[in-house]
Specification:
globular, single chain, 5 helices, 77% helix, Rossmann fold, mainly alpha
Length: 83
């Protein structure tokens, strides 16, 4: 039961962050991987995309969440339980 409640609370936080910052499901996935320490190359390989595509996506995500760099993206992901 406690596991269910924690899962529910986490899901509500993720939904709130997605609504507030207009994040797509893919944005959340990428932020999660960045917070876990993945490089752009590793993320690109995981999604079968080019590294340049992931770099561009990171720029769009940074603009959406008003982050200046990767460290702030990680902080945002942690604060919003996105991983």
């Amino acid at each position: 039961m406690i596991q269910f409640i924690r899962s529910y609370i986490k899901q509500r936080r993720v939904s709130k962050a997605k609504r507030l910052y207009k994040l797509s499901d893919r944005d959340v996935e990428i932020l999660s991987l960045i917070a876990k320490g993945y490089t752009d190359k590793q993320i690109a390989d995981k999604f079968f995309l080019k590294t340049v595509t992931i770099s561009k996506k990171n720029q769009y995500i940074r603009r959406k969440i008003h982050a200046l760099n990767r460290a702030e993206m990680v902080r945002f992901a942690i604060e919003n339980n996105l991983f």
